[in-house]
Amino acid sequence: MDYDPQELETRWRRRWAEEGRYEADPAADAADAADEDPTFITVPYPYPSGGMHIGHARTYTVPDVYARYRRQRGDNVLFPIAWHVTGTPIIGAVERLKKGEEEQLSVLRDTYNVAEDTLQDLETPMGYARHFIEDHYKKGMKDLGLSIDWRREFTTNDERYSKFVTWQYETLRDRGRLEKGLHPVKYCTNEEQPVTTHDLLEGEEAEFQEYTLVRFGRGDTVVPMATLRPETVRGVTNAYIDPDADYVIADVDDEEWFVSAPAVEKLQLQGYEVVPKRTVSGEHLVGEYVTNPITGDDVLVLPAEFVDAENATGVVMSVPAHSPDDYVALQEAKADDERLAEYGIDPADVDAIDPVPILSIEGYGEIPAKTAVEAAGIESSTDPALEEATQELYNSEFHQGRLNDEYGEFAGEVVEDVRDRFRDAHRETGAFGTMQEFSEEVVCRCGGDVVVAEQDTWFLRYNDEDWKQAAHDAVAEMEAIPENTRGEYDHTIDWLNEWPCIRNYGLGTRLPWDEDFVIEPLSDSTIYMAYYTIAHRLREIPTEDLDREFFDALFYGADAVDDPDERALELRAEWRYWYPVTYRFSANDLISNHLTFYLFHHAELFDTEQWPEGIVIMGMGLLEGEKMSSSKGHVVLPGKAIDEYGADTVRFFLLNSAEPWQDYDWRAEQVASVRNQLERFWTRAQDVVDVPGPEERPELATEDRWLLSRLQRTVAKVTDAMEGSETRTASQAAFYDFEEDLRWYRRRTDRSRPAARWTLREVLETRLRLLAPFIPFLTNELHEELTGTPAEDAPWPEVDAALLDSEIEVAESQIERVVEDIQGIQQSLENAEEDVPEADPDRIRVTVAADWKQEVFATIAEIGADQGAVMSEVMQDPALRERGNAVNDLVGELIEFARGRADADLDALAAVDEAAAYERAADFLGREFDADIVVQTEGQDVEAQKQAVPFRPAIELEAE
RNA sequence: GCGCGGGUAGCCAAGUGGUCAACGGCGCAGCGCUUAGGACGCUGUCCCAUAGGGGUCCGCAGGUUCGAAUCCUGUCCCGCGCACCA
């Protein structure tokens, strides 16, 4: 029968669905259930804001392979899936669709093949989600043959799920892990509401920057200067303002402030009470003096066009000693008496301004900005090198600059270490304020300006020390695969601050005590693995019964509430049966948020024994060496790949091309080659199925025993690899590596022998079981043909120690070695310019080393690769002593050979009867080289022309 | 800047102290099989070599060791993540 993956895969899919093959439940008998150690595998639920591509296929196939492996090992395995729809991406996608945005339509039509008459179904968020769930993810997952328990699926917008999340957040609040506070958000001044990155036209990369407002004063009016370098306040020599821009004098809280007009709204949005009183041009302040709140010095305000009134307060302080920008600006101001005079400034006052250094740094002079400007040869503020010089000096000063003595308690410290403390100290005294601003311009899709607003929000207190400690404990107790990711969790835990966990709009669960807000996606997905264990049975319970007490009873037991709901206690048994999660498989970029949140929340809400047992990190996918991108159409859809190659090929490629945590690259050429290999495997397996061998195990030839021994090694290696989720190593060993052994076996032996047929059948059955997690369709089919049972229902193979035979393996590798040596000699002879008849020999003479040489090797195998010890042992033997130097040379050579080999291998080698091994292989060697093979022993039959050494027989090619 | 990963033959890629001129795949070449092609099998694919050999080699430069692709130091280059975005 030809390999027809479409046909056979369709059949198995139907069978699995009809049988409910992967629906997992605790054992009916409670006592049995208590004994079991079930396996619970999870993977982050997909976000159906678009279709599924081949990268997703791998994300879900890796856990599937592990799940299938554990099932064959006899575990009860639960592998569930659900759908994450929380937040704004789906809403945003629907809105772009409804607006008829070309790019969005193109992604839907061209990349994801959405039919025209289906598009209207996508115009509601859940309609949109449902389309991608059903037609893409679910279909793709079923086509791939994922062993998912489909009864448990849900979406994060379901009302019962919301009840669960409600319980979670009420519990967290009661435990003091939630806190109300202010938080900077992106806010569209046109739409008058917060916006997300997806809503932006420009400035997606913009970062929040926290400016310090240094409260300079002019009389009773505060003139707040915005700076990112508050520690330079003692170096301020003057200020700059845009003389032509609009500024306002306003009441801010209980004071009068002077700020740029655009700053008014920003300050209002950031929690300041601002009432503008009158608008003036910047010129109003030019030529005036303002007072430095730290030093008490009065400094002159100069006009400057480079000041951007759109940024922060529109008034900046000048620190010419440390800012190349300011230094150059000051030079230019000094040089332009005319302009100063226009503004009524006495040029002499400006001339008198000298840079005031406030920190020292190696490699620069007393005035670092001067050094930098002069070194770069900058003469004008328009010189592009100025920006570079500024950046470089800024960096150096930040990491190496030490504050001068006038900084008192802060003196001598490096800026990097002292800036925040210095700033905080002056905030407390009231000299400094604060204001948030973006690092670049941000524009909303509606065209409105986006600014930073401080908004009331609820935070998760990931900064609580005791919570961090609990999360660290969770990391310490779990298995991190690969192990080098462990540090990343700890690092993230240390670095994580309070996390705003609500948004103004989006799908998902409302904040229980304030319906205006919705819990954001990374915060409503931290313990939902627990929900899987009960999802299917929760449907029988009316939503209104799913209150706080219900879940308290479910998760904390009968004693946790006064009158526990019986149904909750039943579900509790299910939860306790499956929990904790054995492995969570996830992408490495989720360590810095989702996975660490997962640990935090488990550490807080559940007992130690319910904490995650392990996390396996998965690598990224490339497509033909490049990043996948659905907007560019640079994706492969699983459906298309499965149509083209079959699901087994897709699975095998995804699992075999790299370990789960390594990056992989989908290359059509390689995939096609995998398909080819599977087809060949199928064809050869059919041969074995079609020509059955003897029922009972016959007398086996050496080659058969060799192959079976290799098979045992393969079983050991594959099992070991699977235990560590090394799917590449495992599938490589079971498929390709063993294929090499088979190739040798086919070459080496007569496969029509009954013993060979029996052996090949044995080998096939074992390999089908080893490969079943990877290519379940094909292996099920063949294993059923072979034995009557699908491979997945057969137990995982175990190493049969009786079939392991190191001696045979070692002897066989000697045969390989002889073949290679003969080929090497032939090659060398063929290199000759003239024809050498021996290159095509009629007779090959293989001479085995004399017995005394074998004895010397036996001594080495016994004692080890120690020249001195071996020599003194060997010299005890008078016969050997007689040979003197020859023995010494031989020992040296053999010790070289033995060094680095395991003792067990040396013992196996010592046990080999070389002559007998070559004699057994003589027919084979004769066929290989089309020559007569003569095996003889040195000193016994004839003396060879060349010296033989144990495991390196003398080989002589002879032509008639 | 902080954290992680990586640089191996034309390409992909295995290899963490000796069994390494370095697994395997792709590509290329020769031979066999075949009407032909494909598939399959065998052989070769850094340089030199008329007997299984020698030389050079694993980003670069040093070092440790009897011995290094593998360990250490320095250096260059590349990829990924760094938050309120799922």
Describe this protein's structure.
A motif ('KMSKS' region) lies at residues 627-631. This protein is an alpha/beta fold. The chain has five domains: 32-174 and 475-533 and 579-623, HUPs (Rossmann fold); 178-206 and 440-460, no CATH class; 207-439, Alpha-Beta Complex (Isoleucyl-tRNA Synthetase, domain 2), CATH 3.90.740; 687-804, Isoleucyl-tRNA Synthetase, Domain 1, CATH 1.10.730; 830-958, no CATH class. 46% of the residues lie in helices and 16% in strands. Strands 11-9-10-7-6-17 form a six-stranded mixed sheet. Strands 2-1-25-26-20 form a five-stranded parallel sheet, sandwiched between helices. It has a four-stranded antiparallel sheet with strand order 4-3-19-21. Strand 12 (289-291) and strand 13 (298-303) form a beta hairpin. It starts with a helix and ends with a strand. It binds one RNA strand of 86 nucleotides through strand 3, helix 13, helix 16, strand 21 and helix 21.
